[in-house]
Write a structure and sequence with these properties.
Elements: H1 5-17, E1 21-22, H2 23-30, H3 36-44, E2 48-53, E3 56-61, H4 63-75, H5 83-102, H6 106-110, H7 124-142, E4 150-151, H8 152-158, H9 164-175, E5 180-183, H10 193-198, E6 200-202, E7 205-207, E8 209-212
Antiparallel strand pairs: 1-3, 2-3, 4-8, 5-8, 6-7
Helix pairs in contact: 4-5, 7-9
Amino acid sequence: MKLSAVETAAMIVLMVEGDEVLNSDLAKQHGIKLTPKHRANLNELKLVETRPHGRTMIHVLTDRGWARLADEFREGVAASPGATGGALRSLASGVARFMERTDHRLGDLFEPEPPVEAAERPEPTEALGGVESRVRGAYTELAREPGGWVSLTDLRRRLSELPRDVMDDALRSLNRQPDVVMVPEDNQKALRAEDREAALVISDQHKHYLAIGVR
C-alpha cells in the first residue's frame, strides 16, 4: 500500500530520532499532524507502534517500518509538492545510493546511542568497556581462528551470567568498531528457537553471528 506524504514524513522523523516520539512533539517540533486515519494506517501495516501516553500518544518505528523506509528511499519517497518535497526526494535518493554503494543500512546512519540507566548502570565507558572486553575474551575462546564466525547463541551461553540488556548494549557498541562484523544467518530455516532468541536486532535485521579481528 502506498504511503501518504504525511505518513512518510512521520516515519522519517521517527527514524532520525531513533526512539519513541510524542504525537504532540510531531506536531509542535516537526509540523506533522498525524491524523487518526494516518495513524491507523501505519499501525495496521505494522510500520509504527502507538500507545497512549497521558493525554497524548507516543509512536515508535518498528523493524518493518525501518525496512519499509529503506524501500521507500530506493523507490522514491512520497513527499509534498514544492521545494521542500523536492529536496526531501533528492536527499532520500542520495541516501539510497550511499547505502547501495557502501552496503550500509538506514540503521547504521540513524541508530541512537544505547540508553544508560544511571540508577542501574555504573558510569559509562568503564562499565561498557569491561563488558566488551569480556565479550572479546569469550569470542577468542570460541573462535576457531581470528576473524572466524561465532554464533551469538554460543556467545550468550558462555556469558550467561550477564544480563541480556547489558550484553546487548556491549554487542551494539562492538558492532560500531572497525574490527567487528555481525551478520544474519543466510539460511533462516536452519535457525533453532534458541538461535532466534539469541539474535541481536539492529535496526531492521536480526544478527546471528559475530566475527572479531576483521580488517
